[in-house]
Structures are given as structure tokens and as C-alpha cells.
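Protein in question quoted for reference:
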Amino acid sequence: MHIHIVAGGPSNMIPDLTKYHNEDVYWIGVDRGLLYLLEQGIKPIKGIGDFDSVTETEMEWMNTTYKEFMLSPAEKDETDLELALNWAIEQKPSKIIVFGATGGRLDHALSNIQLLLKGSHHKLEIEIIDIQNSVKLVEPGFHLLTKNNGYKYVSFLPFSHEVKGITITGVKYPLTNVDIKWGTTLCVSNEIIEESGTFSFKQGIVIMVKSKDLME
């Protein structure tokens, strides 16, 4: 079972959600993200949030279309997306994908990326996807890189203070056993040139970002 969460980020940053919908996927709408789902004809198993980003008219329409709301207070210690992630993790899915978590306010985008650490704590893959990028945390070990879904570029950013022993193959700028720290851009904007490659490292946590060139 996969759980897909749609947050309330700008709609122009969210891909066509119907392409990610199948019988093995359960959806959660977070705040305005619930509206996005219902507009695309997808009914989630849960709607979570204080819904302060929807108008009264939109809220009335959602109330006539959908009933599984989990209202959160406007003043709280967690964001609506964190509440949704906590609920989703309790359902023990095999993977979580988050949409609508980028664009708009930078503080929200940065905190949403930090929420990926919850996946590391629970040994669960959590991925953020928008119209141009895929973002996830990667832990030490050996990983495959594949040239698919239109992602031309791949970047590796240190999420821990230091990442040791990075080796990358199948890319335009290969590396062998290199250490990187916070503040370095050495592993930004590489290109996957082979049908498949590899990425490995020995210690630390890495943010892996795959990006499409939307100008092509």
C-alpha cells in the first residue's frame, strides 16, 4: 500500500495527480490539497487541516462532496502536513509520496523537506514530487540511478553535517570516494548520461534531487 498526500502548495507546481492514482494508492488531502484532489475526481481516505487557505464557497462545495474531515486547530505545534504524515505513518504503508509541498512560501518548503527525516526514523521511503522535481532522503549504502520519468539532472546535497565516501557512476561528472560537508555545491546539477548508474556512500544522510528541464 502506498499513501499519497497532497498539501496546499501552489497548484501550478503540482503534476497531474490522476497519473499517480491506482487501486493500491490511498490519498490524504491537506488543507487546500483536499480541494485539488476533489477537483481531479479523487476522493481521499482523509482530509486533514484547519482549511484556512480555502474560501467559504470552496469549503461549502467540499462539504457537499466529501465528509471525512479531520479538523486541526489554527494554532498548533505541528503544521497540517506534519499531522498528515504522522497519521499516514501510523497506517504502515510501504511508501509515501507528498505533492503540493514546494513553491509558495520558502519557510514551508524548507520545513517540508526536513519532514522527510520522519521516513528515516521509521525505515520508510518518503518522496516529495512537484511538476519539475523529485526529492527524497538517502541513507548510506549502494543505490541505483535510472534515467526515467524525464529526470535529466540529479543532485546530492548533504543533509547531515558530513557525508563520507560518495561514489557516483553513469553520470556526466563521476566521483569516487569523495567526502562533502554542509555548504558545498560539488554534487549539484549532475546529469545522468547512461541508461543506469550507481550512487553510494559510507556515512551520513543525503538529499537526492532529480529534476526535469521544463524548457525542453
The first helix runs from residue 32 to 39. Residues 2-131 form a domain with the Rossmann fold fold (CATH 3.40.50.10240).
